[in-house]
């Protein structure tokens, strides 16, 4: 896990958010660096950017494009990329307990990065592969020079509404089921959406300086607090409730809402042009 003040979400997801944010800042000519000193810079030396060179084995057959995130930023600019967008695709069946698989170290859903190049796009996805006892995080260029049409992502305003709805539902559910500690967690998450003091939100060193609004930081901190999927003692272990089907639906909805909120926050990068 990675901790940024109280930020302890899934480490892989945090990293793809941070890398995308820093890449956008670099493409806007900001002086940024993503390395081992960044709060999400764990395993920095094991982050590689590759492209497949054959169809037979997309994992084994690859060519190295960038040795680390900072070199990748340069690669993107050299290849006329103007903007990156984070995307999340939930599994085919939303109720296949993606949120439970998180506790078992399995990759669920799919996190991609779309790179915009004028009227064309590239698509990057990431996967982790064990090599010689080490875990290598590969960002893989799987689609190049195609058009995805107009890209539409939820606004921060809409995202707040969805978060407000699911958190309110969870507060009501936990109150009825006398789960006081969980009621406090979800109330705290909901309250964070309106905090005006930046010092009480996500650490300034997570995002590039002057690149994200107060509203984006409010949402990211709320996501952190509401990210209750983990190991023993997490929300996933709750079992004694009056309506377990409702619990399952609320949990799946929470997971999907948080993932989509991360997309909205990441893609709200403040362009200067």
Overall description:
Helices cover 37% and strands 19% of the residues. By secondary structure, it is an alpha+beta fold. A six-stranded mixed beta sheet has the order 2-1-6-5-4-3. It is globular and about 55 Å long. Residues 98-107 have low confidence and may be disordered.
Radius of gyration, in angstroms, nearest whole number = 19 Å
Give the strand line-up of the largest sheet.
Answer: 2-1-6-5-4-3
Quickly count the domains: 2
Overall 3D geometry? Answer: globular
On the 0 to 100 scale, the average pLDDT is: 87
The computed structural class is alpha+beta
Number of strands: 6
- Major beta sheet summary: 6 strands, mixed
Low-confidence stretches: 98-107
Report how far the terminal alpha carbons are from each other. 35 Å
The helix content is 25-40%
N-to-C series of helices and strands: HEEHEHEEEHHHH
Relative strand content: 15-25%
Please give the count of helices: 7
Short characterization:
The chain has 273 residues and is α+β, with helices and mostly antiparallel strands.
How would you describe this structure in keywords?
19% strand; 273 residues; single chain; 6-stranded mixed β-sheet; 2 domains; alpha+beta; globular
Provide the fold topology.
Elements: H1 11-27, E1 47-52, E2 62-66, H2 69-78, E3 83-89, H3 98-101, E4 110-117, E5 120-131, E6 134-146, H4 156-176, H5 180-192, H6 214-226, H7 244-266
């Amino acid at each position: 896990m990675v901790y940024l003040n109280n930020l302890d979400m899934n480490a892989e997801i945090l990293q793809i958010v941070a890398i995308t944010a820093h890449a956008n800042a670099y493409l806007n000519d900001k002086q940024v660096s993503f390395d081992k000193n960044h709060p999400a810079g764990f395993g920095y030396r094991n982050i590689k950017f590759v492209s497949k060179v054959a169809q037979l084995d997309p994992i084994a057959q690859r060519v190295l494009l960038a040795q680390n995130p900072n070199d990748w930023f340069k690669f993107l600019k050299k290849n006329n990329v103007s903007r990156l967008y984070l995307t999340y695709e939930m599994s085919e069946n939303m109720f296949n307990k993606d949120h439970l698989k998180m506790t078992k170290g399995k990759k669920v859903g799919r996190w991609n990065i779309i790179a915009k190049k004028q009227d064309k796009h590239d698509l990057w996805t990431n996967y982790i592969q064990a090599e010689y006892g080490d875990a290598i995080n590969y960002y893989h260029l799987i689609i190049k020079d195609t058009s995805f049409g107009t890209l539409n992502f939820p606004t921060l305003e809409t995202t707040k509404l969805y978060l407000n709805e699911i958190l309110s539902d969870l507060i009501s559910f936990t109150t009825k089921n006398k789960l006081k500690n969980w009621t406090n967690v979800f109330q705290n998450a909901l309250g964070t959406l309106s905090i005006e003091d930046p010092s009480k939100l996500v650490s300034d060193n997570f995002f590039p300086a002057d690149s994200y609004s107060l509203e984006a930081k409010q949402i990211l901190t709320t996501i952190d607090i509401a990210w209750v999927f983990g190991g023993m003692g997490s929300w996933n272990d709750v079992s004694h409730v009056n309506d377990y089907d409702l619990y399952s639906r609320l949990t799946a909805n929470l997971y999907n809402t948080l993932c989509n909120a991360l997309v909205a926050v990441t893609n709200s990068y403040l362009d200067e042009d």
